[in-house]
Amino acid sequence: MGEINRYSIGEFSEKTGVSIRTLHYYDEIGLLQPEKHPSSGHRIYKHQDILTLQKIVSLKFLGYSLEKITNLLHQSIITVDLNETLALQLEVLKKDKERIEQSMTTIQRVIKVLEEEGGVDSAILFSLIHSMQTESIQNEWLERHNLTVVVEKLSKKTEKEKITLDKTFIQMAKEVKKLYGKPIQDQEVQKMIKAFIEASFEFLGDDLVQQLADAEVEELDIQELENLAPSPFTEDEQKWLNQAMEYYMKEAGME
Amino acid sequence: MGEINRYSIGEFSEKTGVSIRTLHYYDEIGLLQPEKHPSSGHRIYKHQDILTLQKIVSLKFLGYSLEKITNLLHQSIITVDLNETLALQLEVLKKDKERIEQSMTTIQRVIKVLEEEGGVDSAILFSLIHSMQTESIQNEWLERHNLTVVVEKLSKKTEKEKITLDKTFIQMAKEVKKLYGKPIQDQEVQKMIKAFIEASFEFLGDDLVQQLADAEVEELDIQELENLAPSPFTEDEQKWLNQAMEYYMKEAGME
DNA sequence: TATAAGACCTCACGTAACTGGAGGTTCAAG
DNA sequence: CTTGAACCTCCAGTTACGTGAGGTCTTATA
């Protein structure tokens, strides 16, 4: 094409860094429609098109959809609408950011756990991951049942303490899977249950455990919680564990 | 369906919070294929499917594509591969987060500027947005031309100072657009140029401005920079501005 | 037991923002 | 005048589903 202020699509693509195919697409959806050579049909881009494309790229970067951008560009008084939508856009980005951050901390915790624990049964691992992800929903559940104290207590725990809890949980789960099948009165089994219950007490504190035990929760709600935080055990393992715990409670003279 | 451990798709959807259509889709792509009633073709989900679905949801949350998840699930020893890919996934999320953060600060700066400046010509606004976005690329350009000092100086500026610079830039651009057409020797025009140059000196410091002036930069590189940071002016406005500045330089006895 | 409501089935198109390829036309250089 | 690069249009595919049509199956009630 050669002439100044008149670019072929190839030159224009080169200059702006936007692919030819994308420029075709923008033309197709009416976002950026350059002049066309009347006989050949070749696109002719001009200086103004560079400016328009820069607007498009900018708005895209800010998170606007191409459809919104099309509308924004066709209104000449952009600033008015922009001013309103910017705040909205900021909110959207904030939520995206939070989601990403949560995924990142989850991954980091999983990596830590894998590093320090080595091979972990995948059921255990996913149970852990899932419960991390639904932490906020679990908190909602607790608050609905007047257990805000627990939520507060948990939120005060540092990242390190949480990893410690993760590890405790994993070790306990591993042991359950190892010991499963033995009679529930078995010394080793009862020792494991004891260790687990003591760890829980230590983490939450006696008073909170008591509150949790006292809380009146209906069967249906328990179901709901179980869906939120899936057990890493098979149904049989779970049954066995429950029996072993009941036995322990009786022996220890708890209710 | 009614029976325990056998759920119709509707029940299963209810229980897990995953839409029926999504379950259909997961079946279709071989991600989660429940038993089917031989005559009716109705899907029958069981307890194991809940666990599988939870794995799927977890991995999806961590940012994996359904295709990857399919592979991960079909390998029974998940933890090995997971351990490797988690780190990669973390990197991807990090980049996403950075992009989002940059968009957020850009939007915040734009909002601030709009608040304090009111109506702004859209060309000016987009020129500003665009240059914010390409800040890192502009820094690369500067570093390539041995102007790392400038980059360092700029990086030390606080967010507030940057907003001040934005506003200076906008006011100057507004005035250029207002005064455009007047003779370049006009007092008002020359006053504006003076104000602008002084503001630049103040922001960067005399020494840096000198360095920038001394830097040997080729025409082609200048072109490149212009593509990175588009001028908010029309070509005519730009020409007029250049002439006015040259006149000012001569008058002020600068080179 | 007949019937109607509701749950389920498959098929197929639509979404966003492109990318890639096939097959044909135009341009620029030799 | 030829040839190869650049360009054109049209079609298909991508992800993770949503939506709706039109037909079948189950379940509750009359």
TrEMBL record, chains A, B:
InterPro entries: DNA-bd_dom_put_sf (IPR009061), MerR-type_HTH_dom (IPR000551), MerR_fam (IPR047057). Residues 83-117 form a coiled coil. CDD domains: HTH_TipAL-Mta (cd01106). The keyword Glycoprotein does not apply. One of its GO terms (molecular function) is DNA binding. It comes from the Bacteria. Keywords: Coiled coil, DNA-binding. Residues 6-75 form the HTH merR-type domain. This is MerR family transcriptional regulator. It comes from Oceanobacillus profundus.
